Structure formats: structure tokens, C-alpha cells
Amino acid sequence: MSEDNDAVELDDDAETEAVDAAVEEEADTTEEPTADAGAEGASADAETGASADAESEAAEEAEEEASPFDDDVMPDDDVDLLIPVEDYLSAGVHIGTQQKTKDMERFIHRVRDDGLYVLDVSLTDERIRTAADFLESYDPEQILVTSSRQYGRFPAEKFADAIGARARTGRFIPGTLTNPDYAGYIEPDVVVVTDPIGDAQAVKEAITVGIPVIAMCDSNNQLSNVDLVIPTNNKGRRALSVVYWLLANETLDRRGADTVFALEDFEDEL
After folding, report:
1. Is residue 66 a contact partner of residue 99, using CB atoms and an 8 Å limit?
2. How do residues 138-154 score in pLDDT, each as one tens digit?
3. CATH no. for residue 197?
4. Sequence-separated (6 or more) residues with CB below 8 Å from residue 58
5. Rounded to a whole number, what is the distance in angstroms from the first to the last CA of the chain?
6. How many domains does the chain have?
7. What's the pTM value of the predicted model, to 2 decimals?
8. 229 part of a folded domain
9. Cβ(61)–Cβ(23) under 8 Å?
10. d(CA 143, CA 60)
11. Does residue 255 belong to any structural domain of this protein?
12. 35: which DSSP letter?
């Protein structure tokens, strides 16, 4: 299966400027999420250098300073979520970019006056559950988690450690999934990526060898090579921590494990 559609051209510089502008108009403080609740075509070679880090830093600044309490973030306020909606919002999970693809339209609830797209957090919550259902059927050691994004590396590694999976963070070495002669060659059965753009090499190789891809996707992502989407802000430190934390606990819960991790376990100290 593939969650695909026509895509639009993306402009990372415009995205960063839009997020920065939004910060100036939002409140100065946020609430930290509580930890007591239960537990694309992808582009060729990923750009993981200075520009990607700068984009991540800009998104992190927006996440830290933006008001968590948008008036309207999902169509049904009575949906039963894994954690209180305020916890999703204070982590910035709902904050998209000022760019969108046609692929992601179904996961976008609305657009704010400043041009930023607001992701439907009820769909984020639903897809976390769906991904956990999907991962539960796999041998943990055959699950690969990747993140080239700076702020996704720690929670991705923590997620892999929590469920017994393998992680490849930072630059994804070409041939990891396709070249048996490479010393780091592995043969996973499913790949979880933090961003189909930053993790394009991992997505490309997963498609080549025919294994499914679960991806955390923002409003600007393309989904032509993604099998299961988790719609979320995939650039912010706290947003990624929350999503990986929930996915870990939900996956463990489906296996009947007694272990429950706290959100703090997935938050990297800056």
C-alpha cells in the first residue's frame, strides 16, 4: 500500500521565515506535556548538512515560543486521545509549515491567519495507535528506526531501545539495506523514518528491497513511497519526543509488556 498523491514544490527558506514570523505573534510561554498519560516520491540523497540543522533550529524556536492553545485543532473536541489535547499542543505536535502537499491535505485541519497549516491532532493520535498495531506483529529486532534530523535522533534511538529495535541515526550510509558487501548491511522487515525528506536514502533503499515504510510526516511531505503516515510536526524537539514516546508505549502495550516509559525518558537535554 502507498499513501500517494500529486505534490507541490517546496521552499524551505519560505517555510523557515513563516515559522519565525509566527513566533513573534505567539505567546512567550508554553506548558510542558505531562508524562502521566498512557502510553515520500522521496527525494534522492538526503541533505543533512548545515541547512537541515538550521531549519530544525528555526522550527525548535517556533515550538518553544508558540502558543500551545490554538482555538481549533481537530474537528471533534470529544475524541478520546492517548494524552490530553493540551499536551499535544504544548509540544507543538500540531504545528505544520506554511507549505503543504496535496498528499497531506487529508491530515490538515485548517490554516492559521499567519499561513501555518494546523495538523489534525486526532489523526496524529489515531495513526500512532495504527502504527503500534502494525509494529506489534514484527520481530522487534527486524524493525529499523532512522533519523537524520538533529532533534529526532535522541527520541528515535530511545524508541528503538525501548521496543528492542535497531536505530540508524545521523547520515544514512548508502547500501545499508541494499549492499550485502557493506559491513553495516542489515535486512530489516520494516523501517520507521522521522522525515521522508531527511531520511530519503533510507526510504529509497526500503522501497528497493520491498519493505514497508512508516513515516512521521509534516504538512510539506510527499507520500508516494510511504506506507503508513503519522502526521506530526517532524522538525521540533518536543513534538518528536512526544510522538516517539507514545509510539513506544503503545507498541509495548500491544505486546503485553509491563514497562511504561515516561516522556522525560525521550527528551534530550540541550
Report:
1. no
2. 999 999 999 999 999 99
3. 3.40.50.10490
4. 16, 19, 20
5. 38
6. 1
7. 0.77
8. yes
9. yes
10. 28
11. yes
12. S
